[in-house]
Structure to design on (1105 residues):
């Protein structure tokens, strides 16, 4: 039987639930469909007692359901109570498998349990977690076939089959093997997809025999055995050696989740491009390209709980035909009040979009969000916007007036209304290449890195336009600052962007050179084959070029260029570049002088091949993407841990570096400590956008961190962890004379142990002591001079110093 | 780049100390006091004041080390100055005394000062020599990783021994129970490692058996009782499978022995780099007390 409602809400996360509650409050016919047996599965699955924060604090909450920062339990209880009080029509265990719009009629919604619904409007609030992948074989829904494991200690003495080869499967298998007989089924012949530690752990367990493993095996069928059998069920497998049968009590399949994107696309919603970071375009009323289908929450690009709850409320108002001032209206009004001639938010938004061509490609809702993240700047003429060599990475669009780009003191370029700047540092992750000074009546929009990257990922036209301008400006500033864009049009025309993975070769020694590469993102190493061994001679960071030697006379490549990390280059065609050289005599001189310098440096490195080994070692540790890395000379380090103590003492009691961990080569030790990457992995997915880069390059976490732990998971170097604030320490004398509290350098008493309930934990990482005058405390506290911080540009000099 | 505390800022503090010393020596040579040189002349008072201030300042290093946000110079610079000026103090104090010694409080202060300084010299030696040895000994493994591997080997050895014979199992179990790493100061400093030596030597026994056949049974039972039991077992009633397992067991135990040795050495090096501080710091407080007494005595009772 098909039930009919006005609004069907899919997913009971903050957005969906808030929409359903608003509909219930207003007496609108609705149904809330949730796949799990409880509300808000994502938050439900947070660890027990986790402190949930309510960023952004300035945004007012607009929902019939309560939400205030607090423990997971308190928040879930508040929602459960609210949903019960408002008599929300919620259906648990209803996983929506298909939605389609009937011709001229309502939406038809089918659930995987067979239930069917019809609705005039659909609100999608399914988030980004996706549905857990199932075994895909008969018997996949048997009660003893599980797709999650909350507490491995719950089972003992059972024979358990774990299916999967990822981190979750391995962690479960190892935990279960303590009290159970565990068999792991791997579709492939290795566990390379897992983290290093997990891979080692499972291989060790298999070798020891505590876990049995079937490689190259896939399940065919799971059967329930008759009552009274010794085991509860039987799994049939195909392996490369034929069929196999396992008798077991339980199957735990950890096969990951299918991203919701394919489901959303099947509903008819269009994504702007293939980029996994892109989100579907929605109108200011959260309506997608499918009329009547709305998107709220993380799926629409709003990852914070409060934002999603507000959208849930608003979307019901819009469906009911009521006009609501968006919750962000006061925020926008506040932003725009600096703008000369400001009247209304709508007028101001129109003006921005009309004047800045780059922003004309985006939807009104995207523009609103873009503006909330951005700042309006109206600097006085002559004011400096940023300095050359600053490490800032925000992006500026000029709404009115003009700015002066000071490449060097003699040469200034004027940019006018509608143009943008700051894209160089945004893309390369490196220092600003020029100083920018405000001109007359200048009004600009300053956008932080994350919002700009999100926009570039979601709107193809924006990406195209920025890339085009980037290439032109990069060629101009690097090779021919005397020319104009028009004069080098042929070179720009021939240029294209190439991408390389870490370790890929850009070109090989001995090849015929037909192009020059300007490094745009990442970095390269230059190496030569000396005595059958590849010796690294130099390191080329973003903003520099390689391959000009082969174009300047020598026809063969004299060395191999290899990507040190994921790298993008602008490839300039050899012929077009030769023409540019021919008509710009000064360029030839400049290239020749740089060529001489490089050859001398390379020869010096070649004379001491061990130096190249140190560079190779550092690059292998991921130092190629660093901007500043802590290195310890183990022949000087007396293991006093004063660096860690200094870090803890100057940063609220938690050390952000682990001296002992990390590899060592030729007495050079790379401790576990932040390298302040060019494109920080930690920034990738920070819901409150709390991770920033300071002008001197320090990547730091601001106070609006919500403690979600994404950065900790995303950092490949393990330098971020979650910590609560420890109690303050006594003064030196009262500690020394009276033994009050813990002394300087001693671990503070554990704050978490004393208090009951949720302790607020936030992410902590190295901020390179940006707030301390005098530089990083770890280096300054090293008594023997073992600790230094250097940037990759200094690697060749460093390697030479360590002969 | 990396710069040791001895070469800090182009040895600035070495030069400063040399200037101080040559100044003191020149003054001492030039000065012609009434009577023998002693602390009571104007030069004696000057050198004494310099020495006392130096002692107080040198002790402030401990405070500077613990004020992590302090911006007055880097800690490396402070250590450099601490070492060079501390060394210079020997001569400053000797010149101050005019080389007069006796069984009194004043000489006690001098002796304490020399003890502090010479314990410091050991510290400098330890800081220069042991870090590189430590890295080499670790061979890219952390101490924790080595300890974990030892625990793993113990587990595997037990499992293996269990499959061979009850007696062998008992021997291995005893060897595991006897493994102690670290411990008291003396055990740490001497790299004492009590994992069963006899077991590591089992390999030799096994080889011997292959050469001499059953002659191994003639080994003195008094020298290596546990070993004898194993070799006797091999020689007597072990089948091929068992001797294979035993060989594997012996390999495991040898690996453990070498690991345990490395861990003990690691602990030894670490404790050598720390032990001198347990003399240097308390003695410096004793010196401070003796110095205060010395000053009070000379001003009030002389």
């Amino acid at each position: 039987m098909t039930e009919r409602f006005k609004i069907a809400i899919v997913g009971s996360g903050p957005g969906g639930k808030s929409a359903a509650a608003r509909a219930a409050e207003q007496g609108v016919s609705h149904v809330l469909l949730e796949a799990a047996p409880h509300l808000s599965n994502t938050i439900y699955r947070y660890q027990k007692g986790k402190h949930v924060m309510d960023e952004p604090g300035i945004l007012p909450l607009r929902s019939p359901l309560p939400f205030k920062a607090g423990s997971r339990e308190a928040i879930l209880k508040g929602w459960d109570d609210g949903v019960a009080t408002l008599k929300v029509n919620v259906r648990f265990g209803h996983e929506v498998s298909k939605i389609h719009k009937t011709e001229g009629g309502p939406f038809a919604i089918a659930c995987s349990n067979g239930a069917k619904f019809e609705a005039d409007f659909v609100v999608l609030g399914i988030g980004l977690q996706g549905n857990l992948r199932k075994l895909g074989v008969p018997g996949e829904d048997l009660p003893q076939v599980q797709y999650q494991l909350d507490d491995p200690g719950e089972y003992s003495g059972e024979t358990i089959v774990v299916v999967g080869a990822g981190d979750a499967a391995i962690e479960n298998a190892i935990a279960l093997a303590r009290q159970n007989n565990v068999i792991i089924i791997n579709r492939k012949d290795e566990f390379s997809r897992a983290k290093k530690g997990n891979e080692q752990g499972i291989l060790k367990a298999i070798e020891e025999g505590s876990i049995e493993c079937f490689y190259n095996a896939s399940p065919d069928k799971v059967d329930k055995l008759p009552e009274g059998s010794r085991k509860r069920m039987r799994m049939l497998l195909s392996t490369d050696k034929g069929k196999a049968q396992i008798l077991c009590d339980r199957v735990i399949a950890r096969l990951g989740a299918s991203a919701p994107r394919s489901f959303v696309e099947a509903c008819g919603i269009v994504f702007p491009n293939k980029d996994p970071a892109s989100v579907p375009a929605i109108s200011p009323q959260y309506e997608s390209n499918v009329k009547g289908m709305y998107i709220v929450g993380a799926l629409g690009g709003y990852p914070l709980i409060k934002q999603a709850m507000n959208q849930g409320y608003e979307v019901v108002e819009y469906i009911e035909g009521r006009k609501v001032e968006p919750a962000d209206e006061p925020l926008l009004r506040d932003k725009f009040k600096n703008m000369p001639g400001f009247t209304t938010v709508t007028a101001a938004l129109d003006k921005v979009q009309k004047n800045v061509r780059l922003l004309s490609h985006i939807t009104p809702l995207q523009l609103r969000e873009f503006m909330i993240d951005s700042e309006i700047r109206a600097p006085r003429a002559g004011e400096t916007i940023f300095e050359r060599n600053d490490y800032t990475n925000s992006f500026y669009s000029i709404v009115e007036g003009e700015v002066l780009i000071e490449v060097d003191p003699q040469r200034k370029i004027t940019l006018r209304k509608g143009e943008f700047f700051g894209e160089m540092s945004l893309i390369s992750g490196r220092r600003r290449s020029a100083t920018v000074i405000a001109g007359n009546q200048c009004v600009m929009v300053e956008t932080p890195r994350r919002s700009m990257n999100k926009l570039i990922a979601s709107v193809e036209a924006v990406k195209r336009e920025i890339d085009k301008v980037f290439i032109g400006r990069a060629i101009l500033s690097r090779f021919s600052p005397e020319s104009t864009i028009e004069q080098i049009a042929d070179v720009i025309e021939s240029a294209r962007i190439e991408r390389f993975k870490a370790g890929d070769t850009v070109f090989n020694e001995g090849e015929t050179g037909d192009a020059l590469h300007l490094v745009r993102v990442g970095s390269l190493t230059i190496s030569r084959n000396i005595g059958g061994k590849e010796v690294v001679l130099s390191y080329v960071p973003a903003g520099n070029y390689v391959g000009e030697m082969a174009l300047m006379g020598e026809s063969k490549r004299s060395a191999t260029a290899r990507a040190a990390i994921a790298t993008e280059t602008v490839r300039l065609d050899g012929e077009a570049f030769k023409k540019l050289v021919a008509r710009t005599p000064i360029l030839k001189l400049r290239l020749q002088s740089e060529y001489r310098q490089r050859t001398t440096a390379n020869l010096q490195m070649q004379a001491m091949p061990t130096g190249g080994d140190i560079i190779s070692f550092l690059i292998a540790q991921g130092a190629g993407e660093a901007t500043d890395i802590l290195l310890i000379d183990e022949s000087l380090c007396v293991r006093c841990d004063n660096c860690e103590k200094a870090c803890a003492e100057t940063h609220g009691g938690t050390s952000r570096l682990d001296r002992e961990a990390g590899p060592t080569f030729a007495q050079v030790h790379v401790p576990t400590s932040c390298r302040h990457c060019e494109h920080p992995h930690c920034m990738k997915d920070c819901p409150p956008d709390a991770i920033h880069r300071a002008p001197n390059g320090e990547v730091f976490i601001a106070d609006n961190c919500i403690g979600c732990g994404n950065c900790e998971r995303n950092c490949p170097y393990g330098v971020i962890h979650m910590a609560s604030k420890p109690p303050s320490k006594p003064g030196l004398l009262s500690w020394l004379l009276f033994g009050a509290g813990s002394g300087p350098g001693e671990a503070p008493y554990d704050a978490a142990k004393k208090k009951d309930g949720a302790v607020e934990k936030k992410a902590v990482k190295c901020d390179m002591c940006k707030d301390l005058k005098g530089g990083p405390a770890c280096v300054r506290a090293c008594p023997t001079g073992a600790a230094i911080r250097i940037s990759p540009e200094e690697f060749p000099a460093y390697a030479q110093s360590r002969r | 780049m990396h710069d040791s505390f001895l070469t800090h800022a182009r040895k600035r503090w070495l030069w400063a100390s040399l200037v101080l010393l040559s100044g003191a020596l020149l003054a001492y040579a030039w000065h012609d006091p009434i009577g023998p040189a002693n602390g009571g002349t104007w030069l004696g008072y000057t050198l004494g004041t310099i020495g006392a201030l130096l002692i107080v300042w040198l002790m402030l290093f401990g405070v500077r080390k613990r004020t992590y946000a302090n911006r007055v110079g880097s800690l490396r610079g402070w250590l450099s100055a601490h070492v060079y000026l501390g060394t210079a103090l020997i001569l400053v104090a000797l010149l101050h005394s005019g080389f007069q010694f006796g069984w009194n409080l004043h000489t006690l202060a001098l002796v304490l000062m020399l003890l502090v300084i010479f314990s410091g010299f050991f510290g400098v030696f330890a800081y220069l020599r042991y870090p590189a040895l430590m890295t080499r000994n670790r061979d890219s493994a952390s101490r924790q990783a080595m300890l974990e591997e030892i625990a793993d080997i113990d587990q595997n050895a037990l499992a293996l021994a269990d499959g061979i014979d009850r007696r062998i199992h008992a021997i291995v179990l005893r060897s595991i129970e006897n493994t102690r790493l670290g411990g008291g100061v003396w055990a740490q400093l001497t790299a004492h490692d009590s994992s069963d030596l006899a077991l590591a030597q089992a390999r030799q026994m096994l080889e011997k058996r292959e050469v001499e056949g059953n002659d191994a049974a003639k080994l003195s039972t008094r020298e290596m009782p546990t070993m004898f039991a194993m070799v006797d077992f091999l020689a007597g009633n072990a089948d091929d499978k068992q001797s294979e397992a035993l060989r594997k067991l012996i390999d495991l135990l040898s690996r453990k022995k070498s690991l345990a040795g490395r861990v003990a050495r690691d602990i030894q090096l670490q404790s050598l780099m720390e032990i001198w501080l347990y003399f240097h710091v308390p003695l410096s407080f004793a010196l401070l007390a003796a110095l205060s007494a010395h000053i009070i005595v000379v001003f009030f009772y002389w």
Notes: The CA atoms of residues 218 and 232 of chain B lie 9 Å apart. Chain B touches chain A through 33 residues (CB under 8 Å).
